[in-house]
Backbone:
């Protein structure tokens, strides 16, 4: 290999790695933004009515949001803390319904 080939490959690798960093960061930011939007919709105004409308499916929604918190926190500890702290207390019932406490 020539020096030019080595430099060219090195430049391609650096570019690929930089692209990975950017894509991963944008992907995480996008996931966090979607989760925040979901939190606004679920726990914003009329959350009791929304939970009632979901009926027995509410447990699945709440558990999905909880799983998302764990996933997001595994990448960026503390990124969801403020939003989670602002959530109202709720009760998950055996039948799958969820009510505000």
Residues:
């Amino acid at each position: 290999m020539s020096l030019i080939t080595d430099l060219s490959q090195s430049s391609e690798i650096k570019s690929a790695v930089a692209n990975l960093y950017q894509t991963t960061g944008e992907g995480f930011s996008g996931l966090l933004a979607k989760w925040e939007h979901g939190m606004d919709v679920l726990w914003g105004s009329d959350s009791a009515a929304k939970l009632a409308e979901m009926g027995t499916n509410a447990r699945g929604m709440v558990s999905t949001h909880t799983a998302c918190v764990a996933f997001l926190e595994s990448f960026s500890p503390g990124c969801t803390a403020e939003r989670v702290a602002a959530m109202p207390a709720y009760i998950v019932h055996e039948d799958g319904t969820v009510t505000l406490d």
